[in-house]
Amino acid sequence: MSGADWIGWAATAVLMATLIRQIRKQWIADSVESVSVWLFVGQIAASTLFIIYSAMVSNPVFVVTNVLILITAVVGQVLTMIKRRRQDANR
Description:
This protein is about 85% helix and about 0% strand. The protein is mostly helical.
């Protein structure tokens, strides 16, 4: 593995730690009113396109990174939907 690959994997680790922390914070928060559904829609679309691009240019670091980002976007979207339903049920 090249030095460039190590930097790419390190960047992936930092990014995932950041995204996981944000999802945790979102889950704990009392309200999701400030969370935009379009954020996740855009993130899902962009991640999907980046996965395709990364595969086309044969870059495994970016394929894995974008798959993980896609997963965090889907989890974020699902959590937001669950919390919105709970909030609506409690009103």
